[in-house]
Inverse folding.
């Protein structure tokens, strides 16, 4: 069962900024030209990166863990996936996500994509193993691990990542983004991925200042991992 949780404005803002960086042509889609993605879409089309993104997501089953206000879902709908499941435990964020998707549907931009919004924690929902082609965990790894001191952070990190890994189809992808400075045991994330996925590519960047509560830049990493 979902527990009460509230996104901070800073976390919500950072999550949107990172999604914009992933999908905005201003940034040139640097991750879309990683070897893992190029092999999957069959070409390195730097003149039309948006076409590579479309080929990557069309007809795929996608899970977004810690979906926030549904901003990623609204972006993904442009690329005609088969289905999207979005999980978050913040009731206000779930309501915003629902409103945003309903607006797109009224505008005729929804298509036939099946979108399911679930208010819960990934540890509280049950999907069959290997259900999803792609799983996204963006900006929320620290929240999934928890900071209540009841469990060793490294143990909890491994447990959560293994739970996420099992949900991915064989040869499916995990898009795992985390902030280097604020994620508990962040140094162990890449090591665990290296030992439990076939291969992975790493894209590093930073955001900031861009928001009143952000001082300087916050380094973060995006790991694209093949199960």
């Amino acid at each position: 069962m979902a527990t009460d949780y509230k996104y901070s404005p800073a976390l919500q803002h950072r999550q949107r900024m990172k999604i914009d960086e992933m999908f905005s042509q201003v940034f040139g889609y640097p991750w879309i030209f990683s070897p893992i993605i190029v092999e999957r879409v069959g070409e390195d089309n730097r003149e039309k990166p948006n076409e590579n993104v479309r080929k990557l997501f069309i007809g795929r089953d996608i899970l977004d863990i810690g979906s926030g206000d549904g901003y990623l879902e609204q972006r993904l709908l442009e690329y005609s996936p088969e289905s999207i499941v979005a999980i978050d435990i913040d009731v206000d964020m779930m309501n915003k996500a629902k409103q945003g998707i309903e607006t797109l549907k009224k505008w005729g931009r929804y298509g036939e994509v099946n979108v399911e919004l679930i208010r819960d924690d990934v540890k509280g929902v049950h999907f069959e193993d290997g259900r999803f082609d792609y799983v996204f965990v963006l900006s929320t790894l620290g929240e999934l691990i928890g900071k209540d001191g009841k469990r060793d952070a490294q143990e909890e990190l491994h447990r959560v990542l293994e739970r996420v890994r099992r949900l991915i189809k064989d040869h499916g992808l995990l898009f795992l983004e985390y902030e280097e400075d604020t994620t508990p045991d962040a140094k162990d994330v890449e090591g665990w991925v290296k030992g439990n996925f076939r291969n992975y590519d790493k894209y590093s960047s930073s955001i900031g200042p861009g928001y009143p509560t952000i001082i300087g830049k916050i380094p973060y990493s995006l790991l694209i991992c093949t199960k």
In short: Residues 9-226 form a domain with the Rossmann fold fold (CATH 3.40.50.150).
